[in-house]
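Two proteins, back to back. First:
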Amino acid sequence: MSKTKENGPSPFEARAKKLGHDINVIKRKGIQSTVIRVKTLKDLRDLMGPSNPGVRAGRREDYRELYLTREQGNMLRKIEAYVIADADLTAAEIRHIERRHFPIEVEAVSKETHTVAANTVWLIETSGMNKYFNFSVLTMEPGSQIEIKNTPLTLKCDSLIRQEPANGAASTSVGYDIGILGVTQDRLVRLTLPSRTFSSVLDGEPHPTSALIASFTAAQLPLSAKGDISVLAEKVSWLIVDRAVQGGLGAAYALDLDITDSTKINVRSITLPGVNGDPGTDGPPGEQGQCKNSGAECGTPATNGISGGPGGNGSRGTNALPGLDSLPAEIEIGELNGNLVVFSQGGNGSRGGSGGNGGKGGNGGHGGNAKYCCALGCAGAVGGDAGRGGDGNDGGTGGNGGNAQPVHITVNPAQKNQVQGYSLPSLVGFGGLPGAEGAPGMPGVAGLPDGYGAPKGSPGNTNSPGKPGNLGGHGEHPGLAGPVYINK
């Protein structure tokens, strides 16, 4: 257990007490984790904000510029500004926020020592509950990283030890030790399935089974038996499109075998593609010619085949969702051993949905056959024309990038130069792929001759394929980089 100061508890112990943690439990079990239900905005500020209340007031001007200019009217950003920087909120605003957003749950963890193993990533959370970590000593072995995605973080430790590689190489391959990140929504793994159970199901079934639906439902992912399963690569990659769920809004999922663990299939929610055009209807065949006067002469001539119908046009791909913001982080380090790089970036925009493919044109009907009537040959009829292929439609627009929210790092002033913080804008999502043109139908075959000299008819005319769609537009706005403050 961390040493207790002569005149009171250590900072670690004081923080543990503030979180409602029992030092004796921590001594006995090594860790205590609780979920704190925060009922008021003031209580959230006291819990998640900087340890020194005076620091908040010094941040107020920066946050007024950031939130009243850059993200005017965003209520969640106002909450963050109040917690981190004592932002000015009216009593009416506070009542509105507490009525709409509270209570808020915070997962609080107190642990005397915690080590992030060499060459591993400690992914704290993705789009989850607020996190508060209280350590006496946090050790990051060579090559290790800490990441949190789209989740507010408070991380406080008496000592952080950043171990460097023995060969003098960079501490990590990604350029940062702690990443405060957003989320690209179509890259987020929302469900993991056992490949042994579901690989054969996905390869062999055209629609989701009850077991597959149950797994999705447990992960709060809408799926029904009306969904369509497409095999992109057997035993490796699949696509499920279900247009019946979410009140007809539909849902689409990409399923891929995990390249690092073949026992798992990762499920991602992706932008819904456009609907493919229906195939054109085939033209009916013509009627055979008939004789009259007891077969002595030609009567009703053979009729032409009917033209095939045009293929239906595909529908436009759905516009993609924006990237999710990185959320504020409050990091306090009593003593820093080594150098530390902290990075922030919002999530990139998702890719737009692919445009629907044009439907195949209908085939022309065969021309009616010739009829022999005594000494006369009655000619065969013309085949029906081929139907034109349907047009493919445009891909959906890519999503905008998410913003990076502020990060505050507080260290011993003598060690300020050991910390580097930076942020980059996130990227827009690419536009969806264009829908392919529909192929034309086949022209109808000419009516057959009678075999006694009467000519056959002619085939129907060919037709053209549809037009392909266009690539969807890329997202319009990259996400904004956010400030990374050191000792401010």
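And the second protein:
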Amino acid sequence: MQPSNELDYFADLDVLHVMFWYEKRTSISKIVDNLMTNARQLRHAVVSFPDFQLDLAPILNETQPKIIHMHYGGEHPQSEFLKRLSYKPRIVHTVHTPAPVPSIFADIADRIVCIDEFRLRINPGAKSVWIENSVDVSGIPRHTPNQNGICNALRFSADQMQPALLDLFAKLDTKIYFYGADEFLAFSSEHNNYLCEYAKQFPNIECLPYCHDLERRMIGHSFFTYYVQNNNNPLWCHGLNVMEAVSLGLPVVTLKRGQLGQQYIVHGHNGYFANNDEEFLGYCKQILENAGLYLELCANASRHADGITNSMPQKYQEMYLSIL
């Protein structure tokens, strides 16, 4: 993002969201979009590195947005603009990392937003708040039963996807669609391309590019799975895609995790939790081989989706207003 008129873009802002790779439509991009669209009482804008090439500090010193909301967790040289601000904005940091870590902005943050209780425990209690993610699927049709194979969404990166995962899914007698092939998001073009080539030996597996409208692609498949085989951390959170799938009424089969996203699934009602490879394959096979069970899961998933609300923007809005 490179605004054509910088001062106009940043003028009269309540909240400036600062992140990386917004244009890639990552989960964090979707969270920021949800806030900008639905926390309507405040005026928002977003700066995305590394695309934003201007010197941010003098622009902010002139326009003075009231809150700067940081959405990344690693050390980056781009954060240097914070040291050159001549005014004192409120600083908010959301800890988005898949596994719990302390905020890198704890010393300067007015509020640290923790997406689950495990992050809350390891961040300063006086300035930390717990706000779980939610998703905005407004305008997207609800899932209906079909026989169009299983949908998956993973980055083709070494921490999320290895050849053994393709070996596992190849044992299922149905078409498998892996959305997520992208050299940039895989952090390695070699690993991304290797997985795509490796998958070609399996006639039932198709590796598809990461897409910006995955929510709309999901509803065209029978059910959704989320399986990060290479990660044994029990506190690793479910992806935002799990929340989107459940909110759209898809049955979901996934690994059992410690916290985030797990409350969206009721085991045996709108999906299943698996503890290992054998259980995971077993639940998938049950759904594929038992048409009555599949239709029951779909009906339950649709009713369950009716009760899911997009509560995150209102909670963020209340938090923003509390520090202004």
